[in-house]
Specification:
The chain is mostly helical. Helix content is 83%, strand content 0%.
């Protein structure tokens, strides 16, 4: 694009300041003025499309192998539980190693896992036990990968463009959520679930390549200086003392760990209640991604003033709760697609704003640990949430399970309303300090 070329020239020392070239119609994408973030954007987008293809194909495979809502919850439990066990310790590692090298190692392991699952499925040797084991391995690797990538963003763009980069990072994730499931829904019929797993493995090469191409000063390995448990306690102590951070994480734990777990049952809705098959399942997942991407673009254009961020939080949680309830009662595909879109809108507003506030509040020396606790907050309750949703869907009905999730999201909204003044005071303190 000519605008990007102009911005590159500015970075190289042109007459017009780089910030001016990324204002106006490009202001929503200003984090892309950083070459490293552009590389990351492209690599992550390709890789995450593959990841979402695997996610859809894996759920469809488990449903085909077991015909059980509960087993869908068990697979989700297996992928979440390792994160619960090691996330706090992973945060210490993220704070003390070169984050780029850590992410490259994690992405390589995830690539090998995808190839193994694809190979087992291709030769007809796959069993649900193997899927559970590989899901657990992926969860263990993701314990280091997720906080590593979140803490790495500030190294690519600096603090000035951090809110925009976080929103764009979520846009990548949800853009892939829009594209990947739609491709997977069509590909399952064309090349089978094994083909989806293999394509995911290949897609990891894009993000690994992008990380190698970045020009960054090597981050010196810092000595731990104290025991692992002491380092973990420092991160936990910060979160406990800083009440706005604590409550933001509590809300994420409830809303994501329980409210969002309704998605475990989307394959059941697609096959048994809406009767739209694998391709319909793909489009249901894609609709959520579409809503999230549209919301991210609007958020990037909107002001990042403290009041606007608080409004995003409130809107996000209540939008998600109401849309989840609509999805639970819907018997029409068009209404379910619309509900999924608004769930994506609400999810984006809540998670991006929470991530932005947390990274603004924390200092860099604790960033990895705080982001690992943030990862733990939305993963920590997910094993129990996914099992509970799977159990309710199996023994009562899928619709009852979804309404259970919507009730918890609504509860988060009312809790948030009581904590807005606390968050506002913390934002004012940050503005005064900077």
């Amino acid at each position: 694009m000519p605008e990007i070329e102009a911005a590159e020239a500015d970075e190289a020392g042109g007459d017009v300041p780089a910030q001016d070239s990324w204002s106006g119609r490009l202001t929503a994408f200003r984090a892309l003025r950083h070459r490293n973030f552009r590389l990351f954007f492209v690599g992550q987008l390709i890789s995450l499309i593959g990841t979402w293809m695997q996610s859809v194909a894996q759920a469809w495979l488990v449903l085909k192998l077991t015909n059980s809502s509960l087993m869908l919850g068990v697979v989700a439990f297996a992928s979440y539980m390792p994160i619960v066990l090691v996330a706090l310790f992973a945060g210490v590692v993220v704070d003390h190693v070169d984050r780029r090298r850590l992410i490259i190692g994690a992405q390589t392991l995830l690539m090998l896992s995808a190839f193994v699952l694809g190979g087992l499925t291709w030769v007809g040797a796959v069993r649900v036990e193997y899927v559970i084991a590989l899901a657990a391995l992926n969860g263990l690797v993701s314990s280091f990968d997720m906080p590593g990538r979140q803490a790495f963003v500030v190294e690519m763009v600096g603090r000035e463009d951090l809110p925009n980069a976080i929103a764009m990072n979520s846009m990548i994730f949800n853009g892939a959520r829009m594209i990947g499931p739609a491709i997977a829904g069509l590909s399952i019929a064309a090349i089978g679930v094994a083909g989806c797993f293999m394509l995911n493995g290949v897609s990891y090469l894009a993000v690994i390549w992008s990380l190698f191409q970045m020009e960054l000063p090597r981050r010196e390995r810092r000595e731990f200086g104290a025991t692992m448990m002491r380092q973990v306690r420092l991160g936990l102590a910060y979160v406990w003392r800083h009440r706005p951070t604590l409550w933001l994480m509590v809300l994420v734990a409830i809303n994501m760990g329980i409210g969002m777990q309704y998605s475990v049952l989307i394959p059941v809705f697609a096959r048994d209640l809406l009767h739209v098959g694998a391709h319909g399942y793909g489009f249901l997942m894609a609709a959520q991604g579409l809503g999230a991407v549209a919301s991210a673009i609007v958020m990037n254009i909107r002001s990042t003033a403290p009041k606007a961020l608080r409004q995003n939080l409130v809107f996000g949680i209540f939008c998600m709760a109401i849309a989840t309830a609509c999805f639970g009662v819907s018997s029409w595909m068009w209404l379910s697609l619309l509900a999924q879109m608004f769930i994506g809108v609400g999810l984006m507003n809540h998670m991006v704003t929470t991530n932005t506030l947390l990274q603004m509040f924390v200092s860099d020396d604790l960033r990895g640990r705080v982001m690992s606790i943030y990862t733990l907050s939305f993963i920590g309750t997910a094993p129990l949430g996914s099992l509970a949703v799977g159990f309710i869907g199996e023994h009562f009905s899928p619709r009852a399970a979804v309404m259970f999730c919507a009730a918890f999201s609504l509860l988060c909204g009312f809790i948030l309303l009581t904590k807005l003044k606390l968050i506002a005071r913390a934002q004012a303190e940050i503005e005064q300090a900077t």
